[in-house]
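Module 6 notes. Inverse folding takes a fixed backbone as the condition and produces residue identities as the prediction. Think of it as a translation problem where the source language is geometry and the target language is the twenty amino acids. Below is one complete input and output pair. Work through it position by position during the lab.
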């Protein structure tokens, strides 16, 4: 019944009144404390178990391991498991191994999880469907779909039957790569094994087809699931709406929400509205998006931070910066239940800088720091780019120079933005020096960085230096982009007799 607090109270009463308890009672209480996120109390009970002369068994320790993992302490769970084996306190069973493997997978430690998987087999503990499904799901999420398919083949070869959860993980992984032929093969295999697709299976397919713009296929899947006796839910229709919005057919998505879902008695959730609001904002129909935003409370729904961010971005996209600023101040800043994130700040900073409100952007940035929000490198990139493009190079340079003090490392975008700013202001030596420094600092330039500096050399008539850098760029597998090629052609038209330019033409335009 999941009444864990009540169970703990009963356990305490038993202990106080001297009612006999056994290991099963202790294990139940330990499990309750783990579910209540009080693993510390669970370990206290472990000590009590031993004091009463009971010997904790595999269930006791597996429960504790699961509790540690649920509290995001996989390292402690792993250490406990290792010590249990080292001191031969228990003989781990398939549940114990699978619990640890699941914890490792949730942390993305797939190599260690596979090693433990092979170790359990070596020790004679046979993995079950849940063990294989856990590994397969993790591999698919890490986009290692072929390895996951290999495990499916292995488990069936060993006589371990996959279930619908196993197939759902694989279908999702294959859909992420648009491997439709493999998806169809798995669906046929499910039919052969008499494993019925569930709502989750169909939702994966509707979502995948929608994302690829294959809206007719998505609708066919919904029709098929209804024929099979499966009931589409809010997730199904939200995925269909998302597919319509991605095709720019937002009004058709609205029909799904207002007509189809209502007809089937399905109540839209906030995500359904967020999809529509985002669709209308991308179509630059912000007023329609705001109408939907205002409709949310009337439907008993609360907007999320994503809802607010989408409206804010929509205002800026349509150049309505005054309304954007008003929306932020009145709807977001005064909403105590709303936690502003880095993405919100990035939208606002980018919008203000794009509309040349740089001073206001800096003021907001200071407010954000005072409020305790810790900006990431994306926030700094937005501000550095906005400052440098609006004639505030020194302020941009100051932010850039102070990044290490903030515990942040500039990425390739940060360096490229600064190089572009230096080139624009004719500070070519500073740009070149920063270019050399970025690689020394462990950040490799990309094609955008090279092309940016090459155009800077062109602009400042440093044609030999541009040629050397172009050779280096090509040696690294990059090539001149359209802007660089266009700039070179323009120079050749006006300065055809320059030997350095003619050499460049011979190398790159013939």
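Target side of the pair, the amino acids:
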């Amino acid at each position: 019944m999941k009444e864990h607090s009540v169970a703990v109270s009963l356990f305490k009463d038993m202990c106080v009144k001297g009612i006999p308890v056994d290991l099963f009672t202790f294990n139940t209480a330990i499990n309750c404390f783990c579910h209540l996120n009080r693993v510390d109390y669970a370990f206290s009970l472990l000590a009590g178990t031993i004091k009463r002369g009971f010997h904790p068994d595999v269930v006791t320790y597996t429960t504790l391991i699961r509790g540690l993992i649920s509290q995001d302490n996989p390292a402690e769970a792993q250490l406990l498991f290792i010590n249990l084996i080292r001191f031969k306190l228990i003989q781990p069973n398939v549940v114990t191994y699978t619990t640890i493997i699941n914890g490792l997978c949730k942390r993305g430690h797939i190599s260690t999880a596979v090693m433990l998987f092979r170790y359990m087999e070596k020790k004679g503990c046979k993995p079950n469907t849940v063990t294989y499904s856990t590994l397969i799901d993790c591999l698919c999420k890490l986009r290692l779909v072929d390895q996951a398919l290999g495990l499916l083949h292995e488990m069936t070869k060993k006589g371990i039957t996959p279930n619908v959860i196993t197939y759902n993980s694989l279908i999702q992984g294959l859909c992420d790569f648009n491997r439709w032929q493999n998806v169809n093969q798995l669906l046929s295999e499910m039919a052969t094994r008499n494993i019925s697709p569930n709502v989750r299976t169909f939702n994966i397919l509707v979502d995948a087809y929608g994302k690829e713009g294959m809206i007719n296929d998505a609708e066919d899947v919904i029709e098929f699931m209804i024929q099979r006796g499966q009931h589409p839910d809010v997730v199904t229709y939200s995925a269909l709406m998302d597919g319509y919005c991605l095709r720019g057919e937002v009004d058709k998505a609205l029909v799904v929400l207002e007509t189809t879902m209502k007809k089937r008695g399905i109540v839209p959730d906030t995500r359904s509205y967020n999809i529509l609001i985002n669709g209308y904002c991308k179509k630059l129909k912000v007023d329609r998006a705001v109408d939907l935003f205002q409709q949310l409370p009337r439907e008993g729904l609360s907007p999320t931070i994503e809802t607010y961010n989408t409206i804010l971005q929509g205002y800026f996209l349509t150049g309505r910066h005054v309304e954007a600023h008003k929306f932020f101040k009145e709807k977001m800043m005064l909403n105590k239940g709303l936690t502003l994130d880095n993405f919100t700040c990035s939208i606002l900073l980018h919008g203000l800088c794009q509309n040349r409100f740089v001073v206001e952007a800096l003021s907001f940035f200071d407010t954000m720091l005072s409020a305790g929000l810790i900006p990431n490198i994306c926030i700094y990139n937005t501000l550095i780019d906005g400052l440098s493009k609006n004639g505030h190079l020194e302020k941009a340079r100051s932010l850039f120079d102070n990044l290490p003090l903030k515990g942040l490392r500039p990425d390739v975008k940060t360096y490229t933005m600064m190089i572009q700013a230096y080139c624009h202001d004719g500070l070519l030596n500073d740009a070149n020096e920063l270019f050399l420094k970025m690689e020394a600092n462990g950040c490799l330039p990309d094609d955008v960085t090279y092309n940016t500096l090459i155009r800077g050399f062109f602009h400042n008539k440093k044609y030999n230096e541009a040629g050397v850098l172009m050779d280096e760029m090509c040696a690294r597998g990059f090539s001149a982009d359209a802007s660089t090629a266009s700039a070179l052609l323009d120079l050749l038209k006006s300065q055809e007799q320059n030997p350095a330019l003619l050499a460049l033409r011979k190398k790159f335009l013939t």
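Reference fact for the lab report: The chain has a mean pLDDT of 92.
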